[in-house]
Design goal:
alpha/beta
Length: 246
Amino acid sequence: MTLLDNWTLGEHTANGVTHPTYRKGDGPGVVVIHEIPGITPQVIRFAEEVVDQGHTVVIPHLFGTPGAKMGPASMARAAAQLCVSREFLRMAKGTTTPVAVWLRSLAKELHAELGGPGVGAVGMCFTGGYALAMLADAPIAAPVLAQPSAPFAVTPGRSRDLGLSPADLDAVKAKVSAGCQVLGLRYANDLAVGKRFDTLRRELGDSFIAVEFPGIRHATLTLNRQQEGVDRVLAFLQEKLQTAAG
């Protein structure tokens, strides 16, 4: 028996690309995008909490081994998959990663089925910025960026980059101007996040809600879980998806 046995396995196809999905729950939709190395037990635990709050949660399986624990072997397998896949941009600046288009399609399909004010999107670590990229062209009402870490912050320019094309950044800013808020979480000294929170503050202004914790750790919702951060995310999803619908 695995932690995903009581989730419904499905799949989604967009632009000729198919990924498996795991779905559970009822209520407004939330896409939880796993971090490296994949759908770990900690990711599943967080997703279960979102389900328990009254949401339909879909976890797309993008890389790694579903249910595998975080460790050197699982990290190596995920890294190997990411290195050969053209869906994931690891270093490019000012560019939206192709997998974001697939995720937008998934969010559109979920919203068309469930209705309501929109869909929630939670990205983590390598996928942290994907929730913002989805906002550009999908019915995202509650975007959550947990320690966004791509493109890899190996230069000052990349550490400030949001992983968006100029057109997608303009689209995000238009939605923010229309009232959408963006929630971000990080440890204050997390080198993987770089200077992205500075960019988010500059581009989104007061509509960017930053939740920051002291220290140099990384995974705010999973491996280095901060309960305050989890609670803030759950409250944000409830406000934007359930309270707004009511």
